[in-house]
Amino acid sequence: MAVHIIEPCGFPLDDKRIRQRSLDYGERVEMTRHASWEAFQHHRQQQGGRLVLVETDGPTSLYEYAFRTDDWLILGRESAGTPELVYQCSNAGVHIPMAPEIRSFNIVMAGAIALSEAMRQTRHAVIPS
Asked: How far is CA 116 from CA 24, 58, 109, 122, 125, in A?
């Protein structure tokens, strides 16, 4: 599994913090940092696939969207939201259905929910034996 961080990143990602929070799973994740949105876009275009924006106002429910194995999930900054350029570059937008009294999930929770659903649909979920 790959995680791509696009600078400027909204939170510190030093090695010690990553190891502490990722427990046993950090070694299984390939992390790549991109110096800018343009650098990320160049990399993604070479790889192919759709850019799927996970956003509170996404037009399609996460559970109604048909994920593919080559999709790239992208989440904006919690504090500032998603820049207009990211909306323009996205191939699709999804939202996580929530109870009316819940405004939104934090970025880690939203990412985990979206990734879990994408993996379930594409049969990439890791299921203990």
From this structure: 18, 18, 11, 10, 7
CA distance 112 to 46: 26
Correct CATH for 49-129 of 3.40.50.12710, 3.40.1280.10, 3.40.640.10, 3.30.365.10: 3.40.1280.10
Q: What are phi and psi of 7, to 5 degrees?
A: -80, 150
Listed in order, the ranges of the chain carrying CATH 3.40.1280.10 are 49-129
Distance CA 82, CA 98 (A): 19
Q: Which two tokens stand for residue 121?
A: 């649909």
Q: Using the predicted structure, report yes or no on whether residue 121 has a pLDDT greater than 60.
A: yes
pLDDT at 39: 95
Q: What is the mean pLDDT of residues 59-67?
A: 96
Report pTM. Answer: 0.81
Q: Name every residue whose Cβ is closer than 8 Å to that of residue 36 and which is 6 or more positions away in sequence.
A: 6, 7
